[in-house]
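ok here's Mevalonate kinase, seq below lol
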Amino acid sequence: MAQIKVSAPGKVILYGEHAVVYGKTAVASSLSLRTNAELIELPESNEKIIQLDFSNVNLSISLPIQQILDCFFTASFSHVNCDTKINELLHSVSQFVNTLDPLLQRDTPDYKNQKTSLEAFFFSLVYISHMEQIDLTKTAFKVHISSSLELGAGLGSSAAFAVSLAGCLLRWAQLQKNIQKNAFDNEDLEKISNYAKNCERVTHETPSGIDNTVCTYGSIIKFREDKKEKLTFIPDVNLLLVNTKIIRDTKIQVMKAARLKSLYPLIIQPILDSMDIIAEKAWNILNEANSPDLPSTSTGSTAANWCDKLSILVHMNQGLLNALDVSHPKLEMICATAWLNGYAGKLTGAGGGGFAYIMLKPHTEMANLGPLIDQLAEQDFNVKMAKIGGDGVKLEY
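and the structure came out like this:
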């Protein structure tokens, strides 16, 4: 019986969110916080079922596999044309999940996330099963997904969900074909990223592709219109992640920026152009940190110099995002508190709430951040430290 576990990192956009939607450059990084997806084939039984356990949204349900086959594995959704009928499949998945409403916890805060998680799961299951010709009739199976990422807060939780699930399903398809490997190769990664980008349409409608790219490939990535460049050296930089506890909707934030651009194009276009320049400049500085002349410990004045430069650009980028009307008073409080303590902070992701990050100097420890953390705690913000630039999606077993 197959037992597969795949993990994928969260992400943080360091520079260029919203501008990336309009073809500008963004710089993003993977986080040390990860999502795990596990697929386990169940012992043979008369009843072929699928068990789903999504611990972060308090969802545990079972349903007959035949119910899925009857809905999605017909002539209208063959593996030949599934890739050209994404919108139709998205609509059908939404309708299918509506029929599962009695199994969900309608009167709880988890209800919306439960529906979204199910839509993302069934879209990926059906889509990848068609494309990779997975045989769902062979055995009952269980899928468990858990994460150390807060949901819908700008840290790539939906992309990490989609990437880890895509990795699980792709590996399952390979095992059914007796393909043995210990790690994902470049062809696998390209497939996983593309599958996850389509899955991201469940939550983001028209995803830029940056989230699934970072969660798939890891590291620090420069991204522009589906073209990526990966940093070969990862500076020893930690971020302080600060949760505003404000729930926001990515679609609404993107629409808000689009409306402002439509109303005031001569004002907003230069803002987007400036964000593009900031992201390009930050990328150049990060590559300078890759210089062989930089001390290997990254503790000297050279390291402090490039980190200070990056922090100034963080501060500038936040000002431009505020001008785009995608910030929030809570985010501004976090950034002001950081600035008063000698650090730079900005929102990450769609804005309007969610998380901000504060860039820390190399080798900064939590113990040395007492005054800053105390001030943020007094304002009722939750904080955690995370390292940037780690592994992308990987096969755990």
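fwiw Residues 24 and 290 are 24 Å apart (CA to CA). kinda neat tbh
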